[in-house]
Amino acid sequence: MLIRYPSDIPPSEITSRDHYLSRRQWMAGAAGLALAGLSGRADAAALSAVKSPLSAMDEKLTSKEDVTRYNNYYEFGVDKADPAAHAHTLKTTPWTVKIDGLVGKPAEYALEDLIKPATLEERIYRMRCVEGWSMVIPWVGFPLADLIKRVEPKSNAKYLAFETVYRPEEMVGQRGLLPVLNWPYVEGLRMDEAMHPLALLAVGLYGETLMNQNGAPIRLVVPWKYGFKGIKSITRISFVEKEPETSWSQQAPGEYGFYANVNPAVDHPRWSQATERRIGEGGLFVKRRPTLPFNGYADQVASLYSGMDLRKFY
Ligand code: MTE
């Protein structure tokens, strides 16, 4: 399978945001994905999406180059450049997502069938990594709530548990004798968090299908939480009664919690969370930005946590 690395894409082919927003939207979103799938291509296909009022429109976008080359995806290695170099080995077509647990319509859904009923939206979100850096990314996706409603959760479904694909033969980082994490990567959300309109299932960015290093073909984006909640290449979503395990809190429970809401007042044990470096704002003397509670989305999401001690539930 062919993949075009970002370094092979001439700058003339990288769609500027203005061009992308103004260009005639020539392809239905789901059809775009189907096309990419049918042709077996791993490189990006154009997606059409409607603009969303939930976008952070006043922020300067992080360049597509940085978004697709500076990544965390430990299944492909621990360095920031590893995912862009190695993720092409993951076969993303065909792709299914198993939906099971406490739902009325459990099934192994073909990706196209999950996406077809949805209206794809462009959502420009800030992303804050727990390591102290941030980006602004124009995702293309649909609300997780849309999918949840379609599969008819039962009343005792209190949480969603997400799982990334486990394929050591296609993911070099899953093959080592000393795994960085317990594979597969798992994450979770409380049902009210998952139903929040900002919680997104992303299938693209910068107007095109996701590159493998960003979590193709479908990943979670929860902009008020640290980036590690945004599980990539989702292959299973289970509706469960109890709080599910999450990879990073299994790995270091004292450092990473289930909630992982961006919180400048609660430092990581080994570093401060008060400020962040915006990727692309280069230079030694560029000032770090102050980190905002809930990554700047407090107006929309703080009420989900009223009455909770956020130092305890970090
Ligand atoms: N999902 C999987 N399956 N494996 C990972 O290692 N890393 C997480 C998250 N999702 C990760 C993952 C972390 S730590 C971050 S900050 C974001 O993905 C990074 O997303 P990006 O590379 O698209 O910026």
What do these coordinates show?
This protein is of the alpha+beta class and 314 residues long. It has one domain: Oxidoreductase, molybdopterin-binding domain (Sulfite Oxidase, Chain A, domain 2, Alpha-Beta Complex), CATH 3.90.420. The protein is built from nine helices and 13 strands. The strands form two sheets. Strands 1, 4, 5, 8, 9, 10, 12 and 13 form an eight-stranded mixed β-sheet that branches. The protein has a five-stranded mixed β-sheet with strand order 3-2-11-6-7. The structure holds ligand MTE. Residues 71-75, 129, 164, 185, 214-215, 227-228, 230-233 line the site of ligand MTE.
Short description:
This protein has 314 residues and is α+β, with helices and mostly antiparallel strands.
Number of strands: 13
CATH structural architecture: Alpha-Beta Complex
> Number of helix segments?
9
Q: How far apart, in Å, are the first and last alpha carbons?
A: 41 Å
User: Which kinds of small molecule does this entry bind, naming each only once?
Assistant: ligand MTE
Give unreliable regions as ranges: 1-31, 34-41
CATH topology: Sulfite Oxidase, Chain A, domain 2
pLDDT averaged over residues: 89
Total number of distinct structural domains: 1
Largest sheet, strands/sense/barrel: 8 strands, mixed
User: β content, as a range?
Assistant: 15-25%
Compressed to H and E, one letter per element, the order equals HHEHHEEHEEHEEHEEEEHEEH
Task: State the fourth-level CATH superfamily.
Answer: Oxidoreductase, molybdopterin-binding domain
